[in-house]
Design goal:
TIM Barrel; 15 helices; eight-stranded parallel β-barrel; alpha/beta; two-stranded antiparallel sheet; single chain
Length: 454
């Protein structure tokens, strides 16, 4: 059977996400991001295009590394202003039937009990269509917002995260037996008390003694996303993640990363999705013209402000042709490594800007629907990826163009679904049960009498 491509829209509850400056385009509607109508319309559009999910990124700080100031990010609207993406999901879920929702949540600043309850609530309200992108944070500004001087060192954050996962797995998987809720009107018993137990954890970073106050949701544990590109991040991703979001950029480097992730996770299956941006039209000339039109709105200041914070490097300190030194960064190490793979050793700010065609950190896929499909399938073959997280350009026309032009081409080639299957987000992605299987560490937290998923 031909492998079916997975497609997520990659977005954020803000004006400017990855392709900085696109909000200045006269046809862009991203400034309506505070409207539920905007998000509901997007969700319905994605469901029409049979997208697997909407992947919502999030941060808790501001990009203030460049020139030691938030001013560049504020001017260019680099992920600021920004609202809470979790509040948007119930409305979008209510307006759709099949679309999944992956949301980024930073575990460093959210107590496990409160977070586990919030995700269980979303799993209920979406009827099992919620996923969690596990992040530990990369911004000192977020740490300061939470009352700390700075974030923990990169690898230490993952040590904390491993323990956090153990706690939330226990809360989701181990508190209630599957048959705890009986809703017996005759006896007046809603829940059998002996089928619910407290979760107790005494660890280095967390102490919990709590009875989970929510009943089991369709998936129990949400679909688990993670973007583990560094060595420590890959160890974490291989243990916990079901879907891994990688930077993309260089196909060969991505292929090596994918092979390493699959080796580390084996025999447990994982899905790997690189970032991609698509500009398409019916003819190549039209696609190139559209790229040129979009490019006139790209923000150099925006991409530099974003990259400075996500890489932990103040681009304002370097001349245009001075090699950038990113050694010792405590930010997103995988971004540093991925960019070096694309631009080479000793890359400069000028090289980086030239590569940031649409105000993002890597060139887009540009061409006809056939050419875009060729490129995507080449990535799937040569880098062994399972699909793509598609970042937005001009909204909503970028998505509309992809859905109207590229989706039919992929379907004609037999590599993209023509209808949704029923079931939860996890079932749609993996074609098996609603809950994590017995090959995942979360299964160790279940009641001993419970059968494990296949």
């Amino acid at each position: 059977m031909t492998r079916q491509i997975i497609l997520n829209a990659f977005d954020m509850a803000c004006v400017g996400h990855i392709q900085h400056g696109m909000w200045t385009h006269p046809r862009d509607h991203a400034s309506a991001y505070t409207s539920l109508d905007y998000w509901v319309s997007m969700a319905q559009l994605l469901e029409r295009g049979l997208f697997d999910g909407l992947f919502l990124a999030d941060i808790l700080g501001v990009y203030d590394v460049m020139d030691a100031s938030a001013a560049p990010a504020l001017r260019a609207s680099v992920q600021i202003p920004l609202i809470d993406p979790m509040a948007l999901i119930p409305a979008m879920a209510h307006a759709t039937t099949h679309l999944g929702f992956g949301v980024t949540c930073n575990l460093t600043y959210d107590p496990p009990f409160l977070f586990a309850r919030r995700m269980a609530t979303l799993d209920h309200l979406t009827r099992g269509r919620i996923g969690w992108n596990i992040v530990t944070g990369a911004l000192d500004s977020a740490a300061r917002a939470m009352g700390l001087q700075q974030q923990l060192p990169h690898d230490d954050r993952y040590d904390v995260a491993d323990e956090y996962m153990q706690v939330v797995y226990a809360l989701w998987e181990g508190g209630w037996r599957d048959d705890a809720v009986v809703r017996d009107r005759v006896r007046g018993v809603y829940t059998e008390p002996d089928r619910v137990r407290p979760i107790r954890h005494e660890g280095r970073h967390y102490r919990v003694d709590a009875l989970p106050i929510w009943e089991p949701s369709p998936q129990r544990t949400p679909v688990l996303y993670q973007a583990g590109g560094s060595t420590r991040g890959r160890v974490f991703a291989a243990r916990h993640a079901e879907c891994v979001f990688v930077y993309g950029g260089d196909m060969k480097a991505t292929g090596r990363l994918v092979a390493d992730l699959r080796r580390r996770a084996a025999p447990r299956p994982i899905k790997v999705l690189p970032l991609a941006t698509v500009v398409t039209a019916r003819t190549e000339a039209e696609a190139r013209d559209r790229l040129d039109e979009y490019r006139r709105h790209a923000s150099v200041e925006g991409v530099l402000a974003h990259a400075s914070s996500s890489m932990g490097v103040d681009f304002g300190r370097f001349g245009m042709d001075e090699p950038i030194d990113a050694n010792g960064s405590q930010a997103i190490q995988s971004n540093v490594d991925a960019l070096a793979a694309v631009l080479g050793v000793g890359w400069t700010k000028r090289m980086f800007i030239d590569n940031a065609i649409l105000g993002g950190r890597m060139p887009p896929f540009v061409g006809t629907p056939s050419q875009i499909a060729d490129t995507m399938l080449q990535w799937m073959t040569e880098a062994d990826v399972d699909g793509f997280n598609l970042s937005r350009t001009v909204m909503p026309e970028g998505l509309e163009n992809f859905i109207n032009l590229v989706v039919p081409e992929l379907q004609a080639r037999g590599v993209y679904k023509t209808a949704y299957t029923d079931g939860t987000y996890r079932h749609k992605l993996f074609g098996r049960g609603d809950r994590l299987g017995n090959d995942h560490p979360a299964s160790q937290e279940r009641w001993p009498s419970e059968p494990l998923s296949a």
